[in-house]
Design brief:
single chain; alpha/beta; Rossmann fold; N-(1-d-carboxylethyl)-l-norvaline Dehydrogenase, domain 2; 2 domains; 3-stranded mixed sheet; 21 helices; 11 strands; 48% helix; 11% strand; binds D-mannonic acid
Length: 510
């Protein structure tokens, strides 16, 4: 089979959608930092549809990988072309996929190999938007407070090496410094990560670092560049070798770097752009004045339940989300968690039927064609828990409301951190704070006194771990929180995941 490439594109099988415009006419208007699967399955196809609809070719994408060269190495021989496979199952349960080849990616850079080119791209006059999907840990912030972690090794490095930054915030600040020096117009910095008020958060971090570099630069960024907040939603599992093979067969050309995702896509973004934007509403995006209620909805409902499901499932040995949600007790737990504990905390959104939203979410989780690994969602818990679960918990505690289901999710994380599932199989803890957390876990295990009542032992364990302020902030030392989580840790430890989920359902039904 030939390799996917502009010269072979005409040979792709007829059912495959493909760019039907002159890719050479694309200019680079967007520099995207963090060229993972999510951006290629969300931003890029929406952007492509918008460009085509408006015949506006100013918005080609330069994608930047922050660490590994694998994406560039795979995509350069394909001139940036790749396949998006949208997968689900029909009503009878038969898996199906819809394939499109995406052409919006015009350039692929690897930041550590070529920091100067990345900085030059951010500074280039044609660049109007710098967008980001760098995951929670890419922001070098304190997860509990959102402030810049000025002691982060990458930030310390960047202040000493303006020519070759490592952090995202460093690239943005020094790229904007060049832009400012060249008297080029300001641009938009657009975070697409699962963080609350992601634009405001990014703005705070960029202005903090810029202030340490040059107060004049800080002033220019603060008064001329914009940082719209956004909510993005599409489940995009990691691509496997088997996916690469099957997608290549399905398009009739070898694609070394396809992506896959679910049919569902949502994107709500504040219409606050310093230098214009494509009309992404052509492909379903919604422009709003305030994205906050949409972010809270998505982070708490989709990501909160995703994380709850992931930690419990890793412990129970359920490898994929659809396998986990097929367990009746898990489905009941996630449904009840949304309805009884999360939904009542959400800001009102006109026209939104929350019950329907929850039903659709359960159906999305049940998608059997995605094979979304629970171990993948479980990664980086220290960066995810605050906005996914802890905010909801804080509000419910403040209002004197029960938190049993949320406490089980936190308990599952605290047990998960011990690194062994119920079959005693070890798994790695992938988390930027893994070292600190493993010290905390060891101390918490040591704090247990085997001569004491089991619940008291688990209370000591939970009190010690939730005392870790970078994650738990002011929840540390909250007795109601500690006690509710300890009850669930005890359940998980003594009865296991399945029986704990069953018991939760029964307790509720009583
Ligand atoms: C997931 C998200 O990996 C994770 O932590 O919860 O990537 C999730 O699939 C997306 O946010 C859905 O929009």
């Amino acid at each position: 089979m030939d390799r996917l490439h502009p010269d072979t594109l005409a040979r792709a099988l007829p059912a495959v959608d493909r760019p039907r415009y002159d890719r050479d006419a694309l200019r680079i208007g967007i520099v995207h930092l963090g060229l993972g699967a999510f951006a290629r399955a969300h931003l890029a196809p929406v952007n492509e549809a918008a460009m085509v609809q408006a015949s506006d070719w100013r918005w080609g994408i330069c994608g930047v990988s922050l660490r590994q060269p694998d994406t560039r190495d795979a995509l350069a021989p394909q001139d940036g072309l790749y396949t998006l496979a949208i997968r689900d199952a029909d009503a009878a349960g038969a898996k199906r996929e819809q394939l499109s080849i995406i052409g919006a990616l015009r350039e692929t850079l690897v930041a550590p190999d070529d920091p100067t080119r990345v900085l030059a791209r951010i500074a280039a006059p044609d660049t109007r938007i710098v967008s980001l999907t760098v995951t929670e840990k890419g922001y070098c912030h304190h997860p509990a407070t959102g402030a810049l972690n000025a002691d982060h090794p990458d930030i310390v490095h960047d202040l000493l090496h303006p020519e070759s930054p490592r952090s995202i915030v460093g690239f943005i600040v020094y790229g904007l410094q060049r832009r400012h020096a060249a008297k080029s117009p300001p641009l938009t910095l657009m975070s697409l990560d699962n963080l609350p008020s992601n634009g405001k958060l990014l703005r705070g971090l960029v202005l903090d670092l810029a202030g340490r570099v040059d107060p004049g630069l800080q002033e220019w960024i603060g008064t001329t560049c914009t940082f719209p907040c956004s909510m993005v939603d599409r489940i995009v599992p990691r691509t496997t070798d088997a996916d690469r093979e099957s997608i290549s067969r399905a398009i009739g050309l070898v694609d070394a770097w396809p992506v896959l995702g679910e049919p569902f896509l949502d994107w709500v973004i504040e219409d606050d752009f310093a230098a214009g934007r494509p009309d992404w509403s052509a492909a379903g995006a919604r422009f709003v004045t305030d994205a906050t209620p949409y972010e809270v909805l998505k982070l708490r409902m989709v990501n909160g339940t995703h994380s709850a499901l992931a930690y419990l499932s890793v412990l129970a040995g359920w490898r994929t989300v659809d396998q986990a949600i097929a367990q009746p007790a898990m489905r009941r737990y996630i449904g009840t968690l949304m309805r009884d504990e999360i939904a009542p905390t959400l800001p009102a959104l006109e026209g939104l039927d929350l019950a329907q939203y929850a039903e659709r979410l359960l159906a999305r989780f049940a998608n059997p064609a995605l094979q979304h690994q629970t171990g993948q969602i479980a990664m980086d818990g220290s960066q995810k828990l605050p906005q996914r679960l802890l905010g909801t918990i804080r509000e419910r505690l403040r209002d004197g409301l029960p938190i049993d289901g949320l406490a089980l999710a936190v308990a599952a994380w605290l047990v998960y951190l011990q690194g062994r599932d119920e079959a005693h199989q070890a798994y790695p803890i992938s988390d930027p704070l893994a070292d600190a957390l493993s010290i905390e876990v060891a101390a918490a295990v040591a704090a247990r006194d085997a001569t004491e009542d089991p619940l008291l032992q688990d209370t000591r364990y939970v009190a010690r771990l939730t005392g870790y302020r970078p994650v738990f902030g002011d929840l540390s030392g909250n007795d109601r929180f500690v006690n509710a989580v300890a009850v669930q840790v005890k359940q998980l430890r003594t009865r296991g995941v399945a029986a704990t989920l069953e018991a939760l359902g029964t307790a509720r039904a009583d």
